[in-house]
Design goal:
Layout: H1 2-25, H2 35-45, H3 48-57, H4 62-77
Helix pairs in contact: 1-2, 2-4
Length: about 80
Amino acid sequence: MRRLLAELDDTRHRRMTGNAQFLHSAGRLRPGVTTQMAADLLWSVTAPEMFELLVRRRGWSIEQYADFVYHTIAHGLLATS
């Protein structure tokens, strides 16, 4: 199970790295945010554990959770102009 979890985490991080590279090449990353930092933030925010903690354990609605993910990504990564 640990090996499977590690594989899933690695696969998701590779996808998030691709997303971060796209944002970087499009000039959409906030100044000072590296592609690696963006990939790590995207990877952590999309972790199933985050959903488990906030929605299942703390009772957030799907809408609250989606809003949290949106604002975390927008404010943490994206250039404002």
